[in-house]
Structures are given as structure tokens and as C-alpha cells.
Amino acid sequence: MEYDADAEIIRDAPEPPFQQLAGILRTRIQRGDWAPRRPILSETRLCEDYGLSRPTVRRAIAALVKEGRLFVVPQRGTYVADRSAPASEDESAE
């Protein structure tokens, strides 16, 4: 599902909040809100901005780490991964 980068979490949506947040963050990364190898917002800030619990935010981040869009540096933060091409082009090349 496509998410607007400026969307809010909808509590009664069919998708769980962590998937909605992952979609929003994915769109923000694609839009260029954060440059590669630069940090995204902290977990605390994401919790505050989206009204979510820390485990929910961590689950969204973990999903994006699994996709290769983010990487986590312990005690430093979460960073945008280097990507030479958008995910859709990477997937179609396989």
C-alpha cells in the first residue's frame, strides 16, 4: 500500500500501526527527507510525532532494516542506507 509522507497513523485502519509507520518512513526516505548515511528521527521523536509506543516504532524500523532501507548503529541512532536505485527497480532486476 502507498503512504503519503505526511500521513498520520489511523488507529482503526486495516493495516497495523507499525506497517503504516514503516510505509510513511519509506515514502519519506524515497522523497529525500533524509540523505543516505544520515540519521532519521530518534525513536523518542517518532513516538511523540506519531503517538505510538516504542515497541511499535521499533517494529517499523526493524521492517525497514530488513528491507535494507535503514541500518541501526547501537547507541548512535538509525540511519538511511545507501541505495543506488529505488526498491522497485532493484526488485524488478532480480
Automatic annotation (TrEMBL):
This is HTH gntR-type domain-containing protein. The keyword Cell membrane does not apply. Residues 15-83 form the HTH gntR-type domain. CDD domains: WHTH_GntR. Keywords: DNA-binding, Transcription, Transcription regulation. Signal peptide: none annotated. It comes from the Bacteria. SUPFAM superfamilies: Winged helix' DNA-binding domain. SMART domains: HTH_GNTR (SM00345). PANTHER family: MANNOSYL-D-GLYCERATE TRANSPORT/METABOLISM SYSTEM REPRESSOR MNGR-RELATED (PTHR44846), MANNOSYL-D-GLYCERATE TRANSPORT_METABOLISM SYSTEM REPRESSOR MNGR-RELATED (PTHR44846:SF1).
